[in-house]
Specification:
This protein is of the alpha/beta class and 209 residues long. Helices cover 35% and strands 23% of the residues.
Length: 209
């Protein structure tokens, strides 16, 4: 690979990290700190999870915590957030005092076995290089009968506003059948596509009761 090509790839990686994969900096804090960040995704995820006040929800890739604040205001269940961006963890803690939020890899979380009854993941799944490892880890921290809702970017969105180039070259797209197969491989008792749009799909999976 030429020096110019390596420099170009480095710049793409840096831009992708700063804006989406590991958000940091002023622009990222403004985007993900907004109270309506990714709000167009909330309804299908909440419908799929059917949260109750006695649920324990973990939001993976929580960003600035907007979804968690919405759940706190509307459902009132026990909440926790996880993100691997230092800026996002700090932002969530600042915007949501008292909320439990940790900085960690989604494939190696610090949580106990069966600690949560529900897990949400909005948009972040697109960046997981080993999705089966992440899904297995999330299954580990789900209680018997727990459910997982993953909203991710569909292959049809590649090159569109939802996944523009060059960011699209750094993500992982999965067809509906492949996404369901990943959950089955990770050991979920049931898995299916609960919601579909031209640019996104929602995987709903559950753990054996």
């Amino acid at each position: 690979m030429s020096v110019l090509r390596r420099l170009r790839e480095w710049r793409i990686d840096r831009q992708t990290d700063r804006l989406a994969r590991r958000p940091h900096g002023r622009r990222a804090r403004a985007t993900y700190g907004a109270d309506d960040a990714h709000s167009f995704l909330w309804e299908p995820v909440l419908t799929a999870l059917a949260l109750e006040p006695d649920d324990r929800l973990l939001d993976v890739g929580c960003g600035g915590g907007a979804f968690l604040r919405h759940v706190a205001a509307t459902v009132g269940c026990e909440l926790a957030g996880l993100d691997h961006s230092r800026d996002m963890v700090r932002l969530t803690r600042a915007r949501s005092p008292g909320l439990r939020v940790v900085r960690a890899d989604a494939a190696a979380t610090p949580f106990a076995d069966g600690e949560f009854t529900a897990i949400s993941c909005l948009v972040a799944f697109f960046f997981f290089a080993d999705p089966v490892a992440v899904l297995r880890e999330l299954r580990r921290v789900l209680a018997p009968g727990g459910r997982l809702a993953v909203m991710t970017t569909a292959p049809e969105a590649k090159g569109t506003e939802a996944a523009p180039y060059p960011l699209a070259t750094r993500g992982h797209f999965h067809g509906d059948d492949e996404l369901v197969a990943l959950a089955r491989t990770a050991g979920y008792a049931s898995a299916g596509i609960a919601h579909r749009e031209p640019w996104a799909q929602l995987l709903l999976a559950s753990v054996q009761p």
